[in-house]
Amino acid sequence: MRVGCPKEIKNHEYRVGLTPGSVREYVAHGHEVIIETKAGAGIGAEDDAYRAAGAKIAATAKDVFEKSDMIVKVKEPQPSEWAQLRDGQILYTYLHLAPDPEQTKGLLNSGVTAIAYETVTDVRGGLPLLAPMSEVAGRLAIQAGATSLQKANGGRGILLGGVPGVLPAKVTVIGGGVVGLHAARMATGLGADVSILDRSIPRLRQLDDLFAGRVHTRFSTIDALEEEVFSADLVIGAVLIPGAAAPKLVTREMLSGMKKGAVIVDVAIDQGGCFETSHATTHSDPTYEVDGVVHYCVANMPGAVPITSAQALNNATLFYGLQLADRGLKAIAEDRHLRAGLNVHKGRVTNKAVAEALGYENHAPETMLKIA
Predict the structure, then answer these.
(1) Which CATH superfamily is domain 2-119+306-368 in?
(2) Average of per-residue pLDDT values in the chain
């Protein structure tokens, strides 16, 4: 199969879908790999490194899309990219379709078979291709929040860990999944006073054991959420419903009860955000203020640390990418975990959560792939 990797064009996105190390693996499996020139520049991987790994270098993204049977990316295709996709082609990348009707329409019109990293599952019920970027985003959320809390950046002017004789900042993490865990780990490491809210009591027990009492765990109710948000200096939104739009847990009205200069970091912004006042921002203009509360809502947070995040992403996506390249649609048909990643196929939505969020009829992957 001809596997193509274009340069990412989203604002301040420096990651790359295939590292030179991944290219070697595809080539070893007998596939032809086409890389757009300078696609790996953001991680310090020059064209010569890709040539040495066995790839062919294309002068333009148009060449990559035209010549490839499968496209491997990092972020969702932009309008100029989805216009180049075609029937019979496989797209393998993050999609986050539920809050993005325009992209969904573009993919449906193209006829492409689109596999979303964020909905591929594993035997434990986890999301193995989302997890590494959730780890990065959770840790970055604390760095971004700490910077935004500085007075010159619009924040309250408080140090996360405090100093002897001065209380540390209060950090509230909404959601105890992968993002929440790593955000809490970073915040406690800096000495902050951390609370995690979640609606899974077994998960709260796990977190309590993991942190050995160093974080406060609370079952998430409206009352508990308000208490924690109102007392917080920094709030991390880390809620995920696989494939679906994030629930709006913190309302506009709640902002009036928050401290002036408090910061919210909405890691769920890729799925629409879990704060009612959230809208996507970029690394070049990451924050804005609503009712005296600083909002950080960058939609591709891991893009800020591309060397770390591209390698972590490739480590996770390589296995299924090779399956797709080796066996095409047969790989999707035979592997239920990869099949869970199928969001769009031949002009139809094949993910229930996406279909419900956007008002499309859901077509089961098994039916679309004619699995007996």
Answers:
(1) NAD(P)-binding Rossmann-like Domain (3.40.50.720)
(2) 96
